[in-house]
Amino acid sequence: MKKTLTNEEFDSLWQRAEVEGYASQLSKEYPAWRTRQRRITGMASVTLVAAMIAVAVPMLPAGHSGYGKVYSNREGIAETQWVNLASEMLLDA
C-alpha cells in the first residue's frame, strides 16, 4: 500500500531538497568567495595606509637648517639688525 503525501509534507520535502542544494553550492563556492574577500580587504587596507601616509608626511616637521643661537663678539651692531635676525630665525623655525 502506497502512502500519499499531504501538501504540507510535500512542501516540507521540497523545501528541504532546495536548502540542501543551496548548501552544497555555497560550500563549493565558499573558498573562492573567501579569497576574493581577503583580496578586497587587503587592497582596502593598503589604500587606507597609503592615504594616511600621504596625509601625515606633509605634517612632519621639516629639518631645521638654520642656527638656534647667534653669538657675536663685536660691538656697535645696530639693534634693528638683531631684530631682523631674530625675525628671520623665528620665521624659518
Instruction: Please give the domain count.
Output: 2
Low-confidence stretches: none
Please tell me what the overall shape is: rod-shaped
Question: How many helices in DSSP terms?
Answer: 2
**How large a portion of the residues is in β-strands, by DSSP E?**
under 5%
Protein topology:
Blueprint: H1 7-56, H2 79-92
Describe the 3D structure:
There is one protein chain. The mean pLDDT is 83. The chain has 2 domains: 53 residues; 33 residues, no CATH class. It is mainly alpha-helical and 93 residues long. The radius of gyration is 38 Å and the shape is rod-shaped. The chain has 2 helices and no strands.
Summary of the model, kept short:
With 93 residues, the protein is mainly alpha-helical. The chain contains two helices and no strands.
